[in-house]
Amino acid sequence: MSLYTNYLDEIEARKAQGLHPKPIDDGALVKELVRQIKDVDHAHRADSLNYFIYNTLPGTTSAAGEKARFLKEIIQGEALVDEISVPFAFELLSHMKGGPSVEVLLDLALGGEPEIAGQAAEVLKTQVFLYEADTDRLKEAFSAGNPVARDILESYARAEFFTKLPDIEEEIKVVTYIAAEGDISTDLLSPGNQAHSRSDRELHGKCLISQQAQDEIQELQRQHPDKRVMLIAEKGTMGVGSSRMSGVNNVALWTGKQASPYVPFVNIAPIVAGTNGISPIFLTTVGVTGGIGIDLKNWVKKVDSEGNPILNNDDSPILEQKYSVETGTVLTINTKDKKLYDADGAKELVDIASSFTPQKQEFMKAGGSYAIVFGKKLQTFAAQTLGVELKSAFAPSKEISRDGQGLTAVEKIFNRNALGVAEGTVLHAGSDVRVKVNIVGSQDTTGLMTSQELEAMAATVISPTVDGAYQSGCHTASVWDKKAQANIPKLMAFMNNFGLITGRDPKGEYHSMTDVIHKVLNDITVDDRAIIIGGDSHTRMSKGVAFGADSGTVALALATGEATMPIPESVKVTFKGKMADHMDFRDVVHATQAQMLKAFGDNVFQGRIIEVHIGTLLADQAFTFTDWTAEMKAKASICISEDETLIESLEIAKGRIQIMIDKGMENEARTLQGLIDKADARIAEIRSGAVPALRPDENAEYFAELVVDLDEINEPMIADPDVNNADVSKRYTHDTIRPVSYYKGEKKVDLGFVGSCMVHKGDLIIVSQMLKNLEKKEGKIEFKAPLVVAAPTYNIVDELKEEGEWSILQEYSGFEFDDLFPKTSARTEYENTLYLERPGCNLCMGNQEKAEKGDTVLATSTRLFQGRVVEDSEDKKGESLLASTPVVVLSAILGRTPKIEEYKAAVEGIDLTRFAPPVAKPANSNSAHF
To answer: Is 475 exposed, middle or buried (0-12, 13-18, 19+ CB in 10 A)?
Structure first.
């Protein structure tokens, strides 16, 4: 059997699923296609030609290499194919986005055939994905006096690859489609349980919303062939929860434009909107594809005669509709006026200037942000090589500097890492600049897409300016099924070869780690002034400032070591009062959100940096707060730490990095040792007083300031999805925070989950302490509901084993993970016992295992979106409530939420996670867990 006949078999199998032939990335298969194309009498020649032209993936795939080589043969006259003329061969090369295609174009442009060289040069002038090996060749040829090289460089110096592109349309007619009411999680656009198919874009596209929604979108397109479909979150925010490049890809597949006629299922430029705009991390992803994200503001608060909001029975503002966007409504986007109009373009509905900043318009014109990032570098290189003044063709970095105004923490970090900014320039919020990225993280359910993006942009090795990067295996840790077995080793091999530290060793020389990515990134971040980019919305560190990002932005950070983004405004959060002994720090986190909403009415955290002054907690414990800020819809968060606390956190991080080295995870570049060295240098700076722990200036300015009153927090807090709220827009948000007494000890709990990135070692100790405590007080413990426990990292499990706590958990467990014999299928039913699951995301991710349909789950995790942790049954909505570890443990034992008296008795004498404001730091504020 040949590769081609195997491919035909795969095509037939896909037909049964209603799918087209899968795009080809295998160079060996393309070699067979080429042989069959050259044989004019071959029975499969026509199909082979079609697959070669229209179905071969570009970039640095082995398939692209074979395609580029054959096109070179055609151009040089070494092969004759009637269907592929020389001009057409050049056109095909122009759509291959770098790597082998640029290498071929340079061979031809710098070769000895003047006519061919001229044609190759014209194509090269349109290309932007050039790397050092490519630019070195141009520079060398220019230095040797090659006129073609000079011509190309002069074109690059003028940025003609950008300036000659058509401008964006002045007027875009759209027809609306309401995807849902309320906040729309990216799980609706790309469900987590379909993560395995994300790299197969056509197959994954079938999971967008629902079959009914897909049919309705297609019907709108038939009715309005001259308009584009705009996907809307009515009365909510579009794209909450995660960046989810696959979600944007899916929306673009159904509503966007094809990027290239020669690359199947890669669409760009979707248009999405929300009553309350677009989630910040999702908006970044939209920009990657040159799409448009719009804040509709079509529902506004109803006010009385004095301008005060009118409240309903639950003290929420009543909304009234400013204008309708019901499905099928035709609207007009005017990109020049930057306004949204009615169908005729006569009546202004809302100002959308924020959707069309100069930078965003560049992304739209270029077909995405990648081309702009690479284009800027290419123009700079050309000007420097020619020795001419750089006259940038791009919108200048937006530099906002306010005399006499101090800097917030995020402003300090951006000023330290800014690129291309004149020395001495001070940047404040609102500036939009290039910055160095210090740490990058890729996770396993988006990693395959990241590797595809790296191939597409022709990147082959990690940027040397990145301090450290990690590829995790945490999102697929629960079940080692056939999908994981097929995808994960391939991903790990690619990323390991690219230069990342990987959770799984492609050679099998060290134990496979499934540690939660955010926890690893929190450990390998060894500078409180670092910028971190990670392929998950919960990339929120307690050191430095971290941004959750889509798979493409992660790829760009890995390839270039930089990112371009605005400096967000900040909200300062401080604390007063005393934390009650029976409270856990997770309750402080929930109370922060509740007190913020009570104080301001609106969510002032959304799209901004939360600068939290929580410096008496070690990095692991402070991470509980910074991690939750993703659910507060913040852009990111920064933990302001005390000097000694930061030093202790860095020492812990050093120890964990050393464990990674001891396990054999170090690479040839000695990345991990380099991080330890950087940690030592940072500790020395702090101890000497030369560079203390990051702090804002006294005269820094904030969008808002919140003081959280610890005295008001006197009972455990629960984030409730409020699944039966009459107002659909208020379901499945993280804004309904209730005290445990609200439930009167009567709410049935079907399953408890202690795990995810929100827990630390201390939480697992709390589990064991509570079990011992309750057994001592009540006798033998019997679980009335299952309790699933998943440590976030193997380090925690190892330390608990050494300290004897793990053996206590084992005494009560009915299941314990075994890495020698990992589960090969997802659990669908649970018994009333304790499950000790493999380190990783587990139920929080919901892509492999879930609770039973219709369950009420009480969890320490972060996700309460519909269908994420638990799906609905036919007769009951599944709901995932979020609480502290002690509340979850007690609820699983009772089979219901506890009464406050029961809770206090259960935690008596237990060392919970303590916190006190820095001005009143108690001796045990760091907790005994470390």
So the answer is: buried
What's the pLDDT score for residue 863?
84
Report d(CA 59, CA 56) in Å as an integer: 10
Cα gap 445→475, rounded to integer Å: 6
Tens of pLDDT along 773-812? 899 888 889 999 999 999 999 999 999 999 999 999 999 9
Q: Is the Cβ–Cβ distance between 660 and 703 less than 8 Å? A: no
- Rounded Cα distance, 833 and 831, in Å: 6
Strands (E) in 549-667, as ranges, are 562-566, 570-576, 609-615, 636-641
The region that residue 784 occupies, defined by phi over 0 for left and psi between -120 and 50 for alpha, beta otherwise, is: alpha
- Tell me, what's the pLDDT at 565? 86
| Tokens found for residue 414 | 């951006």
pLDDT score for 243:
66
Strands 339-341 and 330-334: antiparallel
Residue 446's pLDDT is 87
Q: How far apart are CA 646 and CA 462, in angstroms?
A: 29
pTM of the full structure: 0.84
Q: To which H or E segment does residue 597 belong?
A: helix 585-600
Of the pLDDT bands very low, low, confident and very high (cuts 50, 70, 90), residue 728 is confident
Contact partners, residue 188, CB within 8 Å, separation at least 6:
179, 180, 209
Question: Per-residue pLDDT averaged across 295-322, rounded?
Answer: 83
Establish how many alpha carbons lie within 13 A of residue 507's alpha carbon, considering only the half-sphere containing its beta carbon: 7
Contact 202, 147 (CB under 8 A): no
- CB 276 within 8 Å of CB 295: yes
DSSP 3-state of 879: strand
Strand order in the sheet with 545-548: 501-502, 468-471, 439-442, 531-534, 545-548
- Closest-CA residue to 137 (of 114, 162, 104, 112): 104
| Local confidence band at 1 (pLDDT 50, 70, 90 cut-offs) | low
Measured between alpha carbons, how far is 858 from 754 in angstroms, rounded to an integer? Answer: 9
CA distance 182 to 866: 12
Strand boundaries in 715-817, DSSP class E: 717-719, 737-739, 751-754, 787-790, 813-816
pLDDT of 925 strictly over 80: no
Among residues 886, 835, 834, 830, which one has the least CA distance to residue 855?
A: 830
Nearest to 795 by CA among 545, 566, 522, 411: 522
Distance CA 516, CA 840 (A): 5
CA 901 – CA 715 distance, rounded (Å):
10
Beta bridge partners of 402: none
**pLDDT above 90 coverage of the chain, percent:** 79
> What SS3 state is found at 846?
coil
Type and span of the H or E element at 274: strand 271-274
* pLDDT at 927 > cutoff 70: no
pLDDT digits (tens, 9 = 90+) for 861-905: 988 888 889 999 999 999 999 999 999 999 999 999 999 999 999
CA–chain centroid gap for 7, Å, is 33
> How many Å is the Cα radius of gyration of the chain?
28
pLDDT 10s digits, 542-557: 999 999 888 888 999 9
Provide φ and ψ at 609, rounded to 5°.
-85, 130
Q: How far apart are CA 68 and CA 49, in angstroms?
A: 14
Question: How far from 247 is each of 240, 346, 557, CA to CA, in Å?
Answer: 11, 33, 20
Q: Looking up tokens 């009650």, which residue turns up?
A: 580
What gap in Å lies between CA 293 and CA 875, rounded to an integer? Answer: 37
Query: DSSP label at 572?
Result: E
